[in-house]
Amino acid sequence: MLTVEKLCAAYGRITVLHDVDLRVETGEIVALVGSNGAGKTTLLRTLSGVQPAASGRILFEGAPIERTTAHARVAQGIAQSPEGRQVFGPLSVEDNLRLGAFRRRSPDRDTLAYVYEMFPVLAEKRRIAAMSLSGGQQQMLAIGRALMAAPKLLLLDEPSLGLAPLLVDQILGAVVKLKAEGITVLLVEQNASAALAIADRGYVLETGRVVLEGRGADLLADPKVKEAYLGL
Length: 232
Prior knowledge:
Helix content is about 40%, strand content about 25%. By secondary structure, it is α/β, with parallel strands linked by helices. The two termini are about 35 Å apart.
């Protein structure tokens, strides 16, 4: 579904991603782990079109997209749930969700019902302002908003950030359910153990470079990963 070849990205003169190679097959959960500043968020932003690529190729379903706009990529089937949730606080929960469907021409009633089924608490609070939600509920809203675009590929950036362990389990459980329902997921997480535990495959990013890749279970058992990211 997604193939990344020799991808580089920069902020001004500072190169953040260095010749990144990565692939995501249809129906997979692929985890991208690494420490703060490794370039994980920049990679997702480059894949979604928010950050321009300096060089390299991004192929989605076989077609090059590295020069297409962010909104065109949404229309093609790529949606991102950003780090920090970035919900529209004064707007209602339902208005936030409907904004996620802005590129769709067909009615979004069925998708809205699907999101409410996935996250029932959002249905209960559909009329209240998003700023009134707890951190975990705002994360559900951010994921739900991305789902309103009916994506083929969902980019999730740090969905467990700042959440209590019980909520982390709930959010990552929802990710597993999304995979079971046919949505492909590229998951960025600092919580390496939780991410790799649910991932089919994973990549380890250090200072903008992929340094390890493999099956999620294999990376969990890798001594280097254990020492650097799992505290073992």
